[in-house]
Amino acid sequence: MPDIFISYSNEDKNFADFLYNHLAAERMTVFEASVSLQPGQQWSRETLHNLRNSACVIFLASKAACQSPYVQQEIGASVISGKNLIPVVWDMPPEELPGWANQYQAINLAKATTDDIKLNFSEIANRLKMDKTKGYLIVVLLVVGFLFLATRAK
């Protein structure tokens, strides 16, 4: 199950690859179609499966991505399923995001340096790690509580 799903246009593959490598270095599990799919896999089924199971969707919202029917489907599915969606813009202002994405706070990288970009996504990775740790803690506490109640019932 990926922590992060990257939705992007093929025109933005270099940026998607950069982001994939940075987030993987942050010990995040990332789905990027061109890197994650293996030869022979049915890409539409695998892409949808990973989108459904991701904790967060990063939408590389370039002008090209906003015109891509595949990206539009991925973002629509993200919005409908209530995913944590993070639009990232650099070649247009956030106000020009399509209607289904402009309700989410975007990261504007128009004047960002490489270090700024890394910092932004390191912060996102750290937030997701904290959420994941909280989830594990809740599961452990539920199991311990269940075991405690089961031993008291005997």
The DSSP helix count reads 6
- Unreliable runs, pLDDT <50, ≥5 residues? none
Strand pairing plus helix content: what structural class? alpha/beta
How far apart the termini lie comes to 38 Å
Major sheet: arrangement of strands: 2-1-3-4-5
Order of secondary-structure elements: EHEHHEHHEEH
Let me know the number of strands.
Answer: 5
Biggest sheet character: 5 strands, parallel
Helix content: 55-70%
What value does the average pLDDT take? 85
- Which topology does CATH recognise? Rossmann fold
Under the CATH scheme, which architecture would be assigned?
A: 3-Layer(aba) Sandwich
Mind explaining what this structure looks like?
The longest helix is centred in the C-terminal third of the chain and has 40 residues. The chain has a 5-stranded parallel β-sheet with strand order 2-1-3-4-5, sandwiched between helices. It has 154 residues and is α/β, with parallel strands linked by helices. The protein is globular and about 65 Å long. It has a single domain, classed as Toll/interleukin-1 receptor homology (TIR) domain (Rossmann fold). Helix content is 55%, strand content 12%. The N and C termini lie far apart (38 Å).
Which SSEs are present, and which pair or pack?
Elements: E1 4-7, H1 13-25, E2 30-31, H2 33-36, H3 43-53, E3 56-60, H4 63-67, H5 69-80, E4 84-89, E5 107-108, H6 114-153
Parallel strand pairs: 1-2, 1-3, 3-4, 4-5
List keywords for this structure.
154 residues; alpha/beta; Rossmann fold; 5-stranded parallel sheet
